[in-house]
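input
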Amino acid sequence: MKIRPLLLALALLVPAMPLLRAEESVSLPAKKDLHLFLLAGQSNMAGRGKVDDEGRTPNPRILSLNKAGAWQPAVDPLHWDKGSAGAGIGKPFAEILAAKDPGVSIGLIPAACGGSPIAAWVPGAAFKATNSHPYDDAISRAKRAMQDGTLKGILWHQGESNSSGKSAGNYAQLLEEMITRFRTDLDAPELPFIIGQLGRFPAKPWGPGQEGVDAAHQAVAKKMKNVRFVSAEGLESRADNLHFSTAALRTFAKGYADAYLNIVGASNR
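output
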């Protein structure tokens, strides 16, 4: 008997194993108890921190929507936008919220794209560096997640790619329009939206572009309802003086969580 027929014969003797779908490998709570957060922006939201044991340790109440649109335990890296994806804000943010409310689970929706300018975050826009359509993909993934849970907020960190030349000039207008568009397309007119400050690292001083984006972030947060700005003051970078370190990202995540809880607390008063 030839080798190929022999292998086929052996295969027929082995009982077929049932396929385990990714979404069946986790236990989903009731839809109202799975609180969803969309992670959007560029590389500092996707995360470029060094992955450590804490980031690799799953929490049964914290899930992440993977590239295929299935739920899985949330472990770093959550994103796959680029090969450099690492530890980020999402998981430590979720850990804080899960600890605050034992009755809920947190579902993270990774959608950040390293290097993407805010102009890429409009319907139909393609971003070649990650072979994606940042805004369209984020909306599609959010709606997929909303089949199983309740959307509670958007975490945004972006602006480094708009910090040179004249691209910072109309950033505030573009940001405000984007927030409104997200809320409209996701049918959530008062959805909390948290903006993180650009890294201000001593070895790489800000110029007019970074100052302009920072001013826009703060102005939009003051102007729009349920929008908050989170300071990155004193947070350290990796050696590249562009991306936050793992420790800094965890501190930053607390700022994002505090901002979100501030919005929720204010709306309940």
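quick obs: The domain at 25-267 is CATH 3.40.50.1110 (Rossmann fold).
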